[in-house]
Amino acid sequence: MAVWLSYSLEDFVPFTLETWQRLIERHNAAQWPLQVVALAAGLLVLVWVWRRPSALRPAFLLAGAWGWTAWKFLAGPYADLVWAGHWFAWGFTIQAGLILAWGLAAAKAATPPLPRAVAAIGWILAAGGIVLFPLAALVSGSGRADLQVFGIFPDPTVVSTMGLLLLLARGPVLALLLVLPVLWSAVAGATAWAIGASLPLALPLAALATFAAAIGAALAGRFSAPSTSADANRT
Amino acid sequence: MNTTSLTRRSALRLIAGGAAALAFTPPRLLASSPAPHAKPIPSSGEMLPVIGLGTWRTFNVGADARALENTTAVMKAFFNAGGGMIDCSPMYGSAREVLGHGFEQIGIPETLFSAEKVWIRDGRRTAEQINESLQLWGVDHFDLVQVHNLLSWEPHLENLRRLKGEGKVRYLGITTSHGRRHDDVEAILRSEDIDFLQLTYNITHPEAERRLLPLAADRGVAVIANRPFDGGGLIRRLKSGNYPLPSWAAEIDCSNWAEFLLKFIVSHPHVTCAIPATSRVEHLRENMGGGLGRMPDEAMRRRMADHVRAL
User: Fold this and answer.
1) pLDDT tens figures, B184-230
2) Using omega within 30 degrees of 0 as the cis cutoff, is the peptide bond preceding A33 cis?
3) A191, B146, B219, B244: least surrounded by Cβ within 10 Å?
4) Furthest-apart CA atoms within chain A: distance in Å
5) Has residue A1 been placed in a domain?
6) Distance between CA atoms of B173 and B171, rounded to whole angstroms?
């Protein structure tokens, strides 16, 4: 036990910040112009959820985003650098399957109302992953070395998924669907911290906010079976 | 029992000890020389340049063409400066492929001393992993294979001995880092016949001086010092803090912190070489300076350590 405690985060991250930024840049070049399609798909999900908070259509798109990220990024160029990349890809694939199953099970049911604060956190995270991530790269001027788009890279996919799940899922299903996103948030935060990337706490804080919001919703007694009331999460 | 007879190993150790004494004549007696210093491997007497090349993190660049150009340039500069040992591991992501790419570009230099590791829990798969590494490096044998972080060290050492007997591996060893498991390392040093020990030793982490370095010398085991810049943090701190090199560093031909820190390490009589890692040619050149010119004696080494501690 004492031996394991002597390891630092740096021991588990076998690449440098420069290599990480080049990886993002190279993957963006390889995937172009899918970023535009992915961004449009993400915005479409936000519109769907705003108009009618039901799980089916968002779940299909989210599952696609997780699956694409798994096999085009984590099992691809990321796995060249990190021996655990293939394991992460399988984790993302499992998450895609869970989201799809949840979407099909919830079908056309709309979700019951959420406390305003919980809904706000859900929207901030959902929109943050889809809009703020690419916007931050454009504002910082770092361009493709930092440009991470929902559905192409894991971090924005995970953040927006946590937000959308807060808005659309309830009870034990929500808890189950949040396990892998929260675990990835820890991995991403640790990696960013170890290589000295900017905002290393962004994902862990997003996961913490998600956790707090989910607890808040549960305490508010909002964990009930899905109803058909449209626009419920806007209250 | 014939107490006056010398085994080959102990004879070589004596010869190596003499060579080491010559290689590290106290600085006041030693004229500056452009040739890199080398030290003998105790178990054979073979000379090894004191500055090697590590690959942790810096050579894990995947298929990035621009980064591959950099790492190849680093390898070329390393061998042009008289470098010998390159150290790698299956744990280092794509570093083995990256080395293979470099050797494809520059060829396999005659001075290469290839140091690889075996890092797999299944002790029956030693040869399988070594063969994979040979293929990735693009070489036909390894000079040294070490059991990485003592993982499944008993079966791996047994298999490495067999491979050594077959001529597929020239030397075998074990590694640890960050001061971990020194008790286990000590027990292995006492009980096993190995050629190399790799451990963390630098100016801010000199713990190995107390037990392991003297024991390695006593057992005729060569020592590779990893993390010479404490994972890069030490030299970053010195450079970003704009700490000036002390004027007396000129007495040991140091013109930058890299040389200063490396000379502290490789001037220890029981350390064979250090393996700083870099992906930049300018840093590589600074590092190689750590094996040139006058080396510190014991008094100077104490002064160097005191100075860095006080910063």
Assistant:
1) 999 999 999 999 999 999 999 999 999 999 999 999 999 999 999 98
2) yes
3) B244
4) 55
5) no
6) 7
Say whether residue B179 is in contact with chain A using an 8 A CB cutoff: yes
List strands edge to edge, sheet with B196-200: B85-87, B113-118, B142-147, B169-175, B196-200, B222-226, B273-274
Q: Does residue B19 carry a pLDDT above 60? A: no
Examine residue A53 and state whether it is found in any structural domain, yes or no: yes
Q: Measured between beta carbons, which residues in chain B are less than 8 angstroms from residue A14?
A: 56-57, 60, 91-93
Count CA within 13 A, CB hemisphere, residue B21.
6
Least confident piece of the model among A25-39, A84-98, B7-21, B97-111? B7-21
> What value does the CA radius of gyration of chain A take, rounded to a whole number of Å?
18
Domain that holds residue A103: 15-222
- What phi and psi values does residue B147 have, to the nearest 5 degrees? -80, 115
Please give the C-alpha separations between residue B154 and each of A171, B74, B162, B220, B311, in angstroms, as whole numbers.
50, 35, 13, 20, 42
Instruction: Report how far residue B250's alpha carbon sits from residue B278's, in angstroms, rounded to the nearest whole number.
Output: 24
Torsions phi, psi of B273, nearest 5? -155, 165
| Closest-CA residue of chain B to A23 | B64
- Domain tally, chain A: 1
- For chain A positions 18-37, those within 8 Å of chain B (CB to CB) are 18-19, 22-23, 26
Is the minimum CB–CB distance between B178 and chain A shorter than 8 Å? yes
Cα-Cα-Cα-Cα dihedral of B207, B213, B214, B215, to 10°?
Answer: 110
- Interchain contact, A81 vs B62, CB within 8 Å: yes
Cβ distance B135 to B101 under 8 Å?
A: no
**Residues of chain B positioned with their CB less than 8 A from the CB of A23:** 62, 64
**Is residue B253 a contact partner of residue B32, using CB atoms and an 8 Å limit?**
yes
Q: Provide the token pair at B122.
A: 């299944």
Closest approach of chain A CAs to the CA of B136, in angstroms? 13
Q: Which two tokens stand for residue B278?
A: 């870099």
Residue-averaged pLDDT of chain B: 90
Distance from C-alpha of B153 to C-alpha of B173, rounded to nearest angstrom: 10
Contact A14 B66 (CB under 8 A): no
Q: Which helix (H) or strand (E) holds B174?
A: strand B169-175
| CB spacing of B94 vs A80 below 8 angstroms | yes
Question: Does B67 contact A22 at a Cβ distance shorter than 8 Å?
Answer: yes
The reply to whether A82 falls in a domain is yes
Average pLDDT over residues B249-270: 96
Enter the pTM of the model.
Answer: 0.86
Is A227 part of any domain?
A: no
Q: What's the pLDDT tens digit per position in A165-180?
A: 999 998 889 999 999 9
B280 to chain A: nearest residue by CA?
A: A18
Q: Which residue has the tokens 């694409």?
A: A68
CB B85 within 8 A of CB B53: yes
d(CA A66, CA A62): 6
DSSP state of B205: B
